[in-house]
Input
Amino acid sequence: MEGLLHQVLSGLANGAVYASLALALVTVYRVTRFVNFAQGEIALCSTYAAWAMIDAGASYWVAFAVTVVASFALGIVIERVVIRPASRAPALSVVIVFIGLMVALNSVTGWIFGYETRSFPSPFPAEPPFGNRYIGSHELGVVGVTLAMLGLLYAFFRFTTLGLVLRAVADNAESSRLVGIRVERMLALGWGLAAAIGAVAGVMIAPVVFLDPSMMSGVMLYAFAAALLGGIDSPGGAVVGGFVVGVLENVMGAYVIGTELKLTVALAVIVGVLAIRPTGLFGHPSAARV
Amino acid sequence: MAAFTLERRARPSPPALARALRFAGAAAALVVACAIPVWGSPYQVFQMTLVLVDAIALLGLNLLTGYGGQISLGHGAFFGIGAYTTAILTQHGHVPYAATIPCAGAVCLVVGFAFGLPAARLEGLHLALATFALGVVLPQILKSRGIAGWTGGVQGISLEKPRPPFGLPLSSDQWLYCLSLGVAAALFALTHNLVRGHTGRVVMAVRDSPVAASSVGIDVALCRSINRQQRRSRRTAIVAQPVHGELEARDAILRAEQFGRRDQHLLKRSGARSIAIS
Output
Protein backbone atom coordinates (compact mmCIF):
# COMPACT_ATOMS: atom_id res chain seq x y z
CA MET A 1 0.00 0.00 0.00
CA GLU A 2 2.83 2.37 0.89
CA GLY A 3 4.56 1.42 -2.31
CA LEU A 4 1.45 2.18 -4.32
CA LEU A 5 1.05 5.56 -2.62
CA HIS A 6 4.67 6.37 -3.42
CA GLN A 7 4.19 5.38 -7.06
CA VAL A 8 1.05 7.48 -7.36
CA LEU A 9 2.69 10.54 -5.82
CA SER A 10 5.80 10.39 -7.97
CA GLY A 11 3.49 9.73 -10.92
CA LEU A 12 1.76 13.00 -10.10
CA ALA A 13 5.13 14.77 -10.17
CA ASN A 14 5.92 13.41 -13.64
CA GLY A 15 2.33 14.07 -14.59
CA ALA A 16 2.79 17.73 -13.74
CA VAL A 17 5.52 17.94 -16.37
CA TYR A 18 3.44 16.06 -18.93
CA ALA A 19 0.54 18.36 -18.12
CA SER A 20 2.69 21.43 -18.80
CA LEU A 21 3.91 20.13 -22.14
CA ALA A 22 0.43 18.97 -23.09
CA LEU A 23 -0.80 22.44 -22.25
CA ALA A 24 1.85 23.91 -24.53
CA LEU A 25 0.70 21.57 -27.30
CA VAL A 26 -2.92 22.54 -26.76
CA THR A 27 -2.05 26.25 -26.77
CA VAL A 28 -0.41 25.94 -30.17
CA TYR A 29 -3.17 23.67 -31.44
CA ARG A 30 -5.90 26.08 -30.44
CA VAL A 31 -4.37 29.08 -32.15
CA THR A 32 -3.02 27.34 -35.26
CA ARG A 33 -4.70 23.90 -35.53
CA PHE A 34 -1.27 22.28 -35.70
CA VAL A 35 0.19 19.69 -33.37
CA ASN A 36 3.67 20.96 -32.64
CA PHE A 37 5.95 17.96 -32.99
CA ALA A 38 8.92 20.19 -32.27
CA GLN A 39 7.60 21.25 -28.85
CA GLY A 40 9.91 18.88 -27.00
CA GLU A 41 12.99 20.01 -28.88
CA ILE A 42 12.19 23.67 -28.24
CA ALA A 43 12.01 22.80 -24.56
CA LEU A 44 15.28 20.91 -24.96
CA CYS A 45 17.02 24.04 -26.26
CA SER A 46 15.64 26.00 -23.32
CA THR A 47 16.81 23.40 -20.83
CA TYR A 48 20.32 23.38 -22.26
CA ALA A 49 20.39 27.17 -22.17
CA ALA A 50 19.44 27.07 -18.48
CA TRP A 51 22.13 24.47 -17.83
CA ALA A 52 24.74 26.59 -19.60
CA MET A 53 23.87 29.61 -17.46
CA ILE A 54 23.93 27.62 -14.22
CA ASP A 55 27.19 25.98 -15.28
CA ALA A 56 28.66 29.44 -15.89
CA GLY A 57 27.84 30.40 -12.31
CA ALA A 58 24.42 32.05 -12.49
CA SER A 59 22.06 31.37 -9.62
CA TYR A 60 19.34 28.83 -10.32
CA TRP A 61 16.32 31.10 -10.23
CA VAL A 62 18.01 33.84 -12.29
CA ALA A 63 18.83 31.24 -14.95
CA PHE A 64 15.28 29.94 -14.73
CA ALA A 65 13.76 33.39 -15.30
CA VAL A 66 16.13 34.28 -18.14
CA THR A 67 15.42 30.91 -19.79
CA VAL A 68 11.67 31.38 -19.66
CA VAL A 69 11.91 34.88 -21.19
CA ALA A 70 14.38 33.74 -23.85
CA SER A 71 12.18 30.76 -24.73
CA PHE A 72 9.23 33.08 -25.15
CA ALA A 73 11.30 35.04 -27.67
CA LEU A 74 12.47 31.84 -29.36
CA GLY A 75 8.88 30.71 -29.77
CA ILE A 76 7.97 33.99 -31.44
CA VAL A 77 10.96 33.80 -33.77
CA ILE A 78 10.15 30.21 -34.75
CA GLU A 79 6.55 31.12 -35.47
CA ARG A 80 7.58 34.06 -37.59
CA VAL A 81 10.42 32.42 -39.52
CA VAL A 82 9.41 28.78 -39.88
CA ILE A 83 5.74 28.29 -39.22
CA ARG A 84 4.01 31.25 -40.78
CA PRO A 85 5.26 30.62 -44.33
CA ALA A 86 3.81 27.09 -44.07
CA SER A 87 0.59 28.03 -42.33
CA ARG A 88 -1.60 27.62 -45.39
CA ALA A 89 0.01 24.40 -46.57
CA PRO A 90 -1.71 20.99 -46.31
CA ALA A 91 -1.41 19.01 -43.09
CA LEU A 92 1.27 16.71 -44.47
CA SER A 93 3.58 19.60 -45.41
CA VAL A 94 3.14 21.18 -42.00
CA VAL A 95 3.96 17.92 -40.25
CA ILE A 96 7.11 17.65 -42.36
CA VAL A 97 8.05 21.22 -41.42
CA PHE A 98 7.65 20.33 -37.75
CA ILE A 99 9.70 17.17 -38.13
CA GLY A 100 12.39 19.17 -39.89
CA LEU A 101 12.35 21.73 -37.11
CA MET A 102 12.58 18.98 -34.53
CA VAL A 103 15.57 17.32 -36.20
CA ALA A 104 17.28 20.67 -36.73
CA LEU A 105 16.84 21.84 -33.13
CA ASN A 106 17.92 18.47 -31.79
CA SER A 107 21.04 18.38 -33.94
CA VAL A 108 21.99 21.98 -33.23
CA THR A 109 21.64 21.37 -29.50
CA GLY A 110 23.75 18.23 -29.73
CA TRP A 111 26.33 20.03 -31.86
CA ILE A 112 26.68 22.94 -29.46
CA PHE A 113 26.51 21.11 -26.14
CA GLY A 114 27.64 17.58 -27.03
CA TYR A 115 25.85 14.28 -26.67
CA GLU A 116 27.06 13.16 -23.26
CA THR A 117 24.54 12.76 -20.49
CA ARG A 118 24.80 15.42 -17.79
CA SER A 119 23.18 15.90 -14.44
CA PHE A 120 20.99 18.92 -13.91
CA PRO A 121 20.68 20.64 -10.53
CA SER A 122 17.41 20.74 -8.65
CA PRO A 123 16.54 23.93 -6.75
CA PHE A 124 14.85 21.91 -4.04
CA PRO A 125 16.58 20.23 -1.06
CA ALA A 126 17.70 16.65 -1.41
CA GLU A 127 15.94 15.25 1.68
CA PRO A 128 12.15 14.78 1.64
CA PRO A 129 10.11 17.57 3.21
CA PHE A 130 8.55 17.27 6.68
CA GLY A 131 10.28 13.92 7.17
CA ASN A 132 7.64 12.06 5.11
CA ARG A 133 8.47 8.86 3.28
CA TYR A 134 6.27 9.16 0.22
CA ILE A 135 7.33 12.12 -1.87
CA GLY A 136 10.68 13.81 -2.46
CA SER A 137 11.26 17.55 -2.31
CA HIS A 138 11.90 17.82 -6.04
CA GLU A 139 8.69 15.99 -6.86
CA LEU A 140 6.69 18.21 -4.53
CA GLY A 141 8.46 21.27 -5.96
CA VAL A 142 7.63 20.25 -9.52
CA VAL A 143 3.96 19.90 -8.64
CA GLY A 144 4.06 23.28 -6.88
CA VAL A 145 5.79 25.09 -9.74
CA THR A 146 3.40 23.56 -12.26
CA LEU A 147 0.32 24.47 -10.27
CA ALA A 148 1.60 28.03 -9.82
CA MET A 149 2.21 28.29 -13.56
CA LEU A 150 -1.25 26.91 -14.33
CA GLY A 151 -2.79 29.44 -11.93
CA LEU A 152 -0.94 32.29 -13.63
CA LEU A 153 -2.01 31.10 -17.06
CA TYR A 154 -5.60 30.75 -15.95
CA ALA A 155 -5.55 34.27 -14.55
CA PHE A 156 -3.95 35.55 -17.74
CA PHE A 157 -6.56 33.99 -20.00
CA ARG A 158 -9.49 34.73 -17.73
CA PHE A 159 -8.83 38.21 -16.34
CA THR A 160 -6.66 40.16 -18.79
CA THR A 161 -7.66 41.82 -22.04
CA LEU A 162 -4.75 40.21 -23.85
CA GLY A 163 -5.89 36.80 -22.65
CA LEU A 164 -9.39 37.51 -23.88
CA VAL A 165 -8.06 38.57 -27.29
CA LEU A 166 -5.96 35.43 -27.51
CA ARG A 167 -9.01 33.31 -26.71
CA ALA A 168 -10.97 35.15 -29.38
CA VAL A 169 -8.31 34.37 -31.99
CA ALA A 170 -8.23 30.72 -30.93
CA ASP A 171 -11.98 30.56 -31.23
CA ASN A 172 -12.44 32.32 -34.54
CA ALA A 173 -9.51 33.93 -36.30
CA GLU A 174 -11.56 35.33 -39.16
CA SER A 175 -14.05 37.22 -37.00
CA SER A 176 -11.27 38.41 -34.71
CA ARG A 177 -9.54 39.95 -37.69
CA LEU A 178 -12.76 41.72 -38.65
CA VAL A 179 -13.05 43.40 -35.25
CA GLY A 180 -9.52 44.72 -35.59
CA ILE A 181 -7.41 42.17 -33.72
CA ARG A 182 -3.91 41.66 -35.08
CA VAL A 183 -4.26 37.92 -35.53
CA GLU A 184 -0.62 37.34 -36.54
CA ARG A 185 0.64 38.96 -33.37
CA MET A 186 -1.66 36.79 -31.31
CA LEU A 187 -0.43 33.65 -33.07
CA ALA A 188 3.13 34.67 -32.29
CA LEU A 189 2.12 35.31 -28.69
CA GLY A 190 0.57 31.85 -28.48
CA TRP A 191 3.78 30.27 -29.76
CA GLY A 192 5.82 32.32 -27.31
CA LEU A 193 3.65 31.19 -24.42
CA ALA A 194 3.88 27.57 -25.50
CA ALA A 195 7.67 27.77 -25.71
CA ALA A 196 7.86 29.40 -22.27
CA ILE A 197 5.62 26.71 -20.75
CA GLY A 198 7.78 24.07 -22.42
CA ALA A 199 10.90 25.67 -20.95
CA VAL A 200 9.50 25.40 -17.43
CA ALA A 201 8.58 21.77 -18.05
CA GLY A 202 12.03 20.98 -19.48
CA VAL A 203 13.89 22.54 -16.57
CA MET A 204 11.62 20.70 -14.11
CA ILE A 205 12.04 17.25 -15.69
CA ALA A 206 15.78 17.54 -16.41
CA PRO A 207 16.91 16.54 -12.87
CA VAL A 208 14.75 13.40 -13.21
CA VAL A 209 15.64 12.16 -16.70
CA PHE A 210 19.10 13.82 -16.88
CA LEU A 211 20.22 16.23 -19.55
CA ASP A 212 20.72 14.55 -22.91
CA PRO A 213 19.74 15.56 -26.46
CA SER A 214 17.27 12.67 -26.64
CA MET A 215 15.76 13.28 -23.20
CA MET A 216 12.58 14.74 -24.63
CA SER A 217 11.46 11.96 -26.95
CA GLY A 218 9.90 9.85 -24.22
CA VAL A 219 8.59 12.84 -22.30
CA MET A 220 6.95 14.26 -25.40
CA LEU A 221 5.25 10.96 -26.14
CA TYR A 222 3.56 11.09 -22.74
CA ALA A 223 2.65 14.71 -23.40
CA PHE A 224 1.02 13.77 -26.71
CA ALA A 225 -0.87 11.00 -24.94
CA ALA A 226 -1.94 13.46 -22.23
CA ALA A 227 -3.10 16.07 -24.71
CA LEU A 228 -5.09 13.52 -26.68
CA LEU A 229 -6.58 11.96 -23.57
CA GLY A 230 -7.80 15.32 -22.34
CA GLY A 231 -8.93 16.44 -25.76
CA ILE A 232 -6.46 18.19 -28.03
CA ASP A 233 -8.39 21.48 -27.93
CA SER A 234 -9.06 21.56 -24.18
CA PRO A 235 -6.49 23.26 -21.86
CA GLY A 236 -8.15 21.91 -18.73
CA GLY A 237 -8.29 18.47 -20.30
CA ALA A 238 -4.57 18.61 -21.06
CA VAL A 239 -3.79 19.19 -17.39
CA VAL A 240 -6.08 16.38 -16.24
CA GLY A 241 -4.69 14.13 -18.98
CA GLY A 242 -1.12 14.92 -17.91
CA PHE A 243 -1.70 13.85 -14.32
CA VAL A 244 -3.66 10.75 -15.38
CA VAL A 245 -0.94 9.66 -17.81
CA GLY A 246 1.79 10.33 -15.23
CA VAL A 247 0.11 8.17 -12.59
CA LEU A 248 -0.87 5.50 -15.10
CA GLU A 249 2.68 5.30 -16.42
CA ASN A 250 4.18 4.87 -12.95
CA VAL A 251 1.63 2.40 -11.63
CA MET A 252 1.63 0.28 -14.78
CA GLY A 253 5.42 0.39 -14.88
CA ALA A 254 5.75 -0.69 -11.25
CA TYR A 255 3.09 -3.37 -11.07
CA VAL A 256 1.91 -4.56 -14.46
CA ILE A 257 4.30 -4.37 -17.39
CA GLY A 258 7.64 -3.42 -15.86
CA THR A 259 9.64 -0.23 -16.25
CA GLU A 260 11.15 -1.31 -19.57
CA LEU A 261 7.86 -1.11 -21.41
CA LYS A 262 6.58 2.13 -19.89
CA LEU A 263 6.50 3.93 -23.23
CA THR A 264 4.07 1.33 -24.50
CA VAL A 265 1.53 2.79 -22.08
CA ALA A 266 1.70 6.04 -24.04
CA LEU A 267 1.21 4.22 -27.34
CA ALA A 268 -1.75 2.31 -25.91
CA VAL A 269 -3.30 5.54 -24.62
CA ILE A 270 -2.80 7.32 -27.95
CA VAL A 271 -4.18 4.52 -30.10
CA GLY A 272 -6.95 3.75 -27.61
CA VAL A 273 -8.15 7.35 -27.39
CA LEU A 274 -8.00 7.82 -31.15
CA ALA A 275 -9.87 4.59 -31.80
CA ILE A 276 -12.52 4.87 -29.09
CA ARG A 277 -13.05 8.56 -28.42
CA PRO A 278 -11.04 10.77 -30.81
CA THR A 279 -12.18 13.97 -29.10
CA GLY A 280 -10.66 12.87 -25.78
CA LEU A 281 -12.32 13.32 -22.43
CA PHE A 282 -13.05 17.05 -22.64
CA GLY A 283 -12.52 17.92 -26.30
CA HIS A 284 -15.09 19.06 -28.81
CA PRO A 285 -15.89 17.21 -32.01
CA SER A 286 -14.87 19.18 -35.06
CA ALA A 287 -16.89 19.37 -38.23
CA ALA A 288 -15.54 20.14 -41.66
CA ARG A 289 -17.33 21.28 -44.77
CA VAL A 290 -16.72 18.87 -47.64
CA MET B 1 -14.75 -2.32 -53.03
CA ALA B 2 -14.26 -4.74 -55.84
CA ALA B 3 -17.62 -3.88 -57.32
CA PHE B 4 -16.40 -0.43 -58.05
CA THR B 5 -14.15 0.49 -60.95
CA LEU B 6 -12.96 3.92 -61.78
CA GLU B 7 -12.76 4.69 -65.42
CA ARG B 8 -9.27 4.66 -66.78
CA ARG B 9 -8.26 8.09 -67.83
CA ALA B 10 -7.20 8.31 -71.44
CA ARG B 11 -3.48 8.89 -71.41
CA PRO B 12 -1.97 10.73 -74.37
CA SER B 13 0.87 8.66 -75.69
CA PRO B 14 4.20 10.46 -75.30
CA PRO B 15 5.92 11.66 -78.44
CA ALA B 16 8.30 9.20 -80.03
CA LEU B 17 11.43 11.19 -79.09
CA ALA B 18 10.47 11.38 -75.42
CA ARG B 19 9.76 7.68 -75.41
CA ALA B 20 13.11 6.91 -76.99
CA LEU B 21 14.90 9.13 -74.49
CA ARG B 22 13.14 7.46 -71.59
CA PHE B 23 14.06 4.07 -72.91
CA ALA B 24 17.69 5.11 -73.39
CA GLY B 25 17.78 6.48 -69.86
CA ALA B 26 16.42 3.28 -68.38
CA ALA B 27 18.88 1.20 -70.41
CA ALA B 28 21.78 3.37 -69.27
CA ALA B 29 20.69 3.07 -65.64
CA LEU B 30 20.50 -0.70 -66.03
CA VAL B 31 23.98 -0.87 -67.54
CA VAL B 32 25.43 1.27 -64.74
CA ALA B 33 23.61 -0.77 -62.11
CA CYS B 34 25.03 -4.00 -63.52
CA ALA B 35 28.52 -2.53 -63.91
CA ILE B 36 28.85 -1.44 -60.30
CA PRO B 37 29.52 -4.85 -58.73
CA VAL B 38 32.01 -5.68 -61.46
CA TRP B 39 34.14 -2.55 -61.38
CA GLY B 40 33.34 -0.90 -58.09
CA SER B 41 35.49 -1.32 -54.99
CA PRO B 42 33.89 -3.42 -52.23
CA TYR B 43 33.16 -0.24 -50.31
CA GLN B 44 31.45 1.38 -53.28
CA VAL B 45 29.41 -1.75 -53.84
CA PHE B 46 28.30 -1.65 -50.22
CA GLN B 47 27.40 2.02 -50.51
CA MET B 48 25.33 1.37 -53.59
CA THR B 49 23.59 -1.47 -51.76
CA LEU B 50 22.55 1.04 -49.14
CA VAL B 51 21.29 3.33 -51.89
CA LEU B 52 19.09 0.52 -53.16
CA VAL B 53 17.86 -0.25 -49.66
CA ASP B 54 16.95 3.40 -49.21
CA ALA B 55 15.18 3.39 -52.53
CA ILE B 56 13.00 0.48 -51.48
CA ALA B 57 12.19 2.16 -48.17
CA LEU B 58 11.20 5.33 -49.94
CA LEU B 59 9.15 3.35 -52.42
CA GLY B 60 7.05 2.11 -49.52
CA LEU B 61 6.74 5.58 -48.06
CA ASN B 62 5.85 7.01 -51.44
CA LEU B 63 3.09 4.50 -51.89
CA LEU B 64 1.69 5.22 -48.45
CA THR B 65 2.04 8.98 -48.34
CA GLY B 66 2.24 9.98 -51.98
CA TYR B 67 -0.47 7.77 -53.43
CA GLY B 68 -2.45 7.09 -50.29
CA GLY B 69 -2.18 10.55 -48.74
CA GLN B 70 -1.52 9.09 -45.31
CA ILE B 71 1.16 10.48 -43.07
CA SER B 72 3.49 7.93 -41.54
CA LEU B 73 6.13 8.89 -39.06
CA GLY B 74 6.54 5.31 -37.93
CA HIS B 75 7.91 3.95 -41.17
CA GLY B 76 11.05 2.97 -39.34
CA ALA B 77 9.13 0.69 -37.02
CA PHE B 78 8.27 -1.63 -39.89
CA PHE B 79 11.77 -1.35 -41.15
CA GLY B 80 12.89 -2.59 -37.75
CA ILE B 81 10.34 -5.39 -37.56
CA GLY B 82 11.40 -6.73 -40.93
CA ALA B 83 15.05 -6.49 -40.04
CA TYR B 84 14.51 -8.34 -36.79
CA THR B 85 12.46 -11.00 -38.55
CA THR B 86 15.32 -11.71 -40.91
CA ALA B 87 17.86 -11.61 -38.12
CA ILE B 88 15.92 -13.95 -35.85
CA LEU B 89 15.17 -16.40 -38.64
CA THR B 90 18.79 -16.64 -39.72
CA GLN B 91 20.14 -16.68 -36.19
CA HIS B 92 17.71 -19.00 -34.43
CA GLY B 93 16.04 -20.82 -37.31
CA HIS B 94 19.07 -21.18 -39.57
CA VAL B 95 16.92 -20.17 -42.51
CA PRO B 96 18.91 -19.16 -45.60
CA TYR B 97 19.22 -15.40 -45.85
CA ALA B 98 17.40 -14.88 -49.14
CA ALA B 99 14.47 -17.00 -47.95
CA THR B 100 13.92 -14.70 -44.98
CA ILE B 101 13.04 -11.72 -47.17
CA PRO B 102 9.55 -12.93 -48.09
CA CYS B 103 9.06 -14.07 -44.48
CA ALA B 104 9.95 -10.59 -43.24
CA GLY B 105 7.53 -9.21 -45.79
CA ALA B 106 4.76 -11.48 -44.55
CA VAL B 107 5.35 -10.58 -40.90
CA CYS B 108 5.30 -6.86 -41.65
CA LEU B 109 2.20 -7.32 -43.74
CA VAL B 110 0.36 -8.86 -40.81
CA VAL B 111 1.64 -6.33 -38.28
CA GLY B 112 1.03 -3.46 -40.68
CA PHE B 113 -2.52 -4.54 -41.27
CA ALA B 114 -3.17 -5.00 -37.56
CA PHE B 115 -1.87 -1.52 -36.80
CA GLY B 116 -3.37 -0.05 -39.93
CA LEU B 117 -6.93 -1.04 -39.17
CA PRO B 118 -7.40 1.27 -36.18
CA ALA B 119 -4.99 3.86 -37.57
CA ALA B 120 -6.74 3.98 -40.92
CA ARG B 121 -9.76 5.61 -39.34
CA LEU B 122 -7.57 8.56 -38.48
CA GLU B 123 -6.55 11.39 -40.68
CA GLY B 124 -3.88 13.98 -40.89
CA LEU B 125 -2.50 14.99 -37.53
CA HIS B 126 -4.01 12.14 -35.57
CA LEU B 127 -2.47 9.62 -37.89
CA ALA B 128 0.84 11.43 -37.61
CA LEU B 129 0.62 11.19 -33.82
CA ALA B 130 -0.27 7.51 -33.76
CA THR B 131 2.51 6.53 -36.15
CA PHE B 132 4.95 8.79 -34.33
CA ALA B 133 4.15 6.95 -31.12
CA LEU B 134 4.69 3.61 -32.81
CA GLY B 135 8.08 4.71 -34.08
CA VAL B 136 9.23 5.86 -30.64
CA VAL B 137 7.86 2.87 -28.76
CA LEU B 138 9.01 0.00 -30.95
CA PRO B 139 12.71 0.12 -29.97
CA GLN B 140 11.70 -0.17 -26.33
CA ILE B 141 9.53 -3.17 -27.09
CA LEU B 142 12.25 -4.85 -29.11
CA LYS B 143 14.80 -4.32 -26.38
CA SER B 144 12.57 -5.46 -23.54
CA ARG B 145 13.72 -8.32 -21.40
CA GLY B 146 10.76 -10.56 -22.14
CA ILE B 147 11.84 -11.19 -25.70
CA ALA B 148 15.54 -10.53 -25.28
CA GLY B 149 16.20 -14.22 -25.86
CA TRP B 150 15.08 -13.69 -29.44
CA THR B 151 16.07 -10.12 -30.14
CA GLY B 152 19.29 -9.96 -28.17
CA GLY B 153 17.95 -7.09 -26.03
CA VAL B 154 20.06 -3.95 -26.13
CA GLN B 155 22.95 -5.91 -27.62
CA GLY B 156 20.97 -6.70 -30.74
CA ILE B 157 21.90 -9.49 -33.07
CA SER B 158 25.00 -9.47 -35.18
CA LEU B 159 24.83 -11.45 -38.33
CA GLU B 160 27.37 -12.52 -40.84
CA LYS B 161 27.10 -11.41 -44.40
CA PRO B 162 25.33 -14.03 -46.45
CA ARG B 163 27.48 -16.14 -48.75
CA PRO B 164 26.35 -16.34 -52.37
CA PRO B 165 24.47 -19.58 -53.05
CA PHE B 166 25.21 -22.29 -55.63
CA GLY B 167 28.93 -21.53 -55.43
CA LEU B 168 28.57 -18.38 -57.51
CA PRO B 169 31.93 -16.66 -57.95
CA LEU B 170 30.86 -13.50 -56.11
CA SER B 171 31.99 -11.82 -52.91
CA SER B 172 29.45 -11.27 -50.14
CA ASP B 173 29.23 -7.59 -50.98
CA GLN B 174 28.56 -8.31 -54.62
CA TRP B 175 25.95 -10.94 -53.83
CA LEU B 176 24.19 -8.57 -51.44
CA TYR B 177 24.19 -5.89 -54.09
CA CYS B 178 22.75 -8.20 -56.73
CA LEU B 179 20.09 -9.42 -54.36
CA SER B 180 19.13 -5.86 -53.42
CA LEU B 181 19.06 -4.85 -57.05
CA GLY B 182 16.80 -7.76 -57.92
CA VAL B 183 14.44 -7.09 -55.02
CA ALA B 184 14.37 -3.38 -55.80
CA ALA B 185 13.63 -3.95 -59.48
CA ALA B 186 10.89 -6.46 -58.72
CA LEU B 187 9.27 -4.18 -56.16
CA PHE B 188 9.43 -1.15 -58.42
CA ALA B 189 7.77 -3.13 -61.22
CA LEU B 190 5.10 -4.41 -58.84
CA THR B 191 4.41 -0.96 -57.45
CA HIS B 192 4.26 0.50 -60.92
CA ASN B 193 1.61 -2.01 -61.91
CA LEU B 194 -0.21 -1.60 -58.65
CA VAL B 195 -0.66 2.16 -58.92
CA ARG B 196 -1.64 1.94 -62.59
CA GLY B 197 -4.23 -0.71 -61.93
CA HIS B 198 -7.58 -0.92 -60.17
CA THR B 199 -6.12 -0.89 -56.66
CA GLY B 200 -4.02 2.15 -57.39
CA ARG B 201 -7.00 4.09 -58.66
CA VAL B 202 -9.05 3.20 -55.60
CA VAL B 203 -6.18 4.26 -53.38
CA MET B 204 -5.89 7.59 -55.13
CA ALA B 205 -9.65 8.10 -55.01
CA VAL B 206 -9.55 7.64 -51.25
CA ARG B 207 -6.68 10.10 -51.04
CA ASP B 208 -8.34 12.76 -53.17
CA SER B 209 -11.72 12.63 -51.51
CA PRO B 210 -12.51 10.11 -48.78
CA VAL B 211 -16.12 11.28 -48.70
CA ALA B 212 -16.66 10.89 -52.42
CA ALA B 213 -14.90 7.53 -52.39
CA SER B 214 -17.07 6.18 -49.60
CA SER B 215 -20.20 7.49 -51.28
CA VAL B 216 -19.47 5.36 -54.33
CA GLY B 217 -19.04 2.30 -52.17
CA ILE B 218 -15.36 2.12 -51.28
CA ASP B 219 -14.68 1.01 -47.72
CA VAL B 220 -12.31 3.81 -46.88
CA ALA B 221 -10.88 2.42 -43.67
CA LEU B 222 -10.41 -1.03 -45.13
CA CYS B 223 -8.84 0.38 -48.23
CA ARG B 224 -6.47 2.47 -46.20
CA SER B 225 -5.38 -0.36 -44.03
CA ILE B 226 -4.89 -2.46 -47.11
CA ASN B 227 -2.74 0.27 -48.52
CA ARG B 228 -0.85 0.34 -45.42
CA GLN B 229 -0.39 -3.32 -45.44
CA GLN B 230 0.78 -3.26 -49.01
CA ARG B 231 3.18 -0.52 -48.27
CA ARG B 232 4.30 -2.38 -45.35
CA SER B 233 4.91 -5.51 -47.20
CA ARG B 234 7.09 -3.43 -49.40
CA ARG B 235 8.77 -1.90 -46.53
CA THR B 236 9.23 -5.21 -45.26
CA ALA B 237 11.31 -6.10 -48.09
CA ILE B 238 12.99 -2.96 -47.31
CA VAL B 239 13.24 -4.08 -43.98
CA ALA B 240 14.85 -7.20 -44.92
CA GLN B 241 17.44 -5.29 -46.72
CA PRO B 242 18.61 -3.04 -44.04
CA VAL B 243 19.46 -6.16 -42.43
CA HIS B 244 21.81 -6.71 -45.23
CA GLY B 245 23.35 -3.49 -44.37
CA GLU B 246 23.27 -4.44 -40.81
CA LEU B 247 25.20 -7.49 -41.58
CA GLU B 248 28.23 -5.48 -42.18
CA ALA B 249 29.11 -5.27 -38.57
CA ARG B 250 31.76 -2.68 -39.12
CA ASP B 251 30.81 0.69 -37.85
CA ALA B 252 27.54 0.45 -36.05
CA ILE B 253 27.09 4.12 -35.41
CA LEU B 254 27.89 5.18 -38.92
CA ARG B 255 25.48 2.61 -40.16
CA ALA B 256 22.78 3.66 -37.80
CA GLU B 257 23.19 7.13 -39.14
CA GLN B 258 23.10 6.05 -42.70
CA PHE B 259 19.94 4.17 -42.08
CA GLY B 260 18.63 6.93 -39.97
CA ARG B 261 18.75 9.63 -42.52
CA ARG B 262 16.46 7.69 -44.73
CA ASP B 263 13.10 8.67 -43.39
CA GLN B 264 14.13 11.72 -41.66
CA HIS B 265 15.09 11.42 -38.16
CA LEU B 266 12.30 9.27 -36.90
CA LEU B 267 13.73 6.34 -38.57
CA LYS B 268 16.91 7.08 -36.86
CA ARG B 269 15.13 6.85 -33.61
CA SER B 270 12.93 3.96 -34.31
CA GLY B 271 14.25 2.13 -37.26
CA ALA B 272 17.90 2.52 -37.30
CA ARG B 273 18.51 2.60 -33.65
CA SER B 274 16.44 -0.43 -33.05
CA ILE B 275 17.57 -2.11 -36.15
CA ALA B 276 21.14 -1.29 -35.46
CA ILE B 277 21.55 -4.83 -34.68
CA SER B 278 24.93 -4.50 -33.11
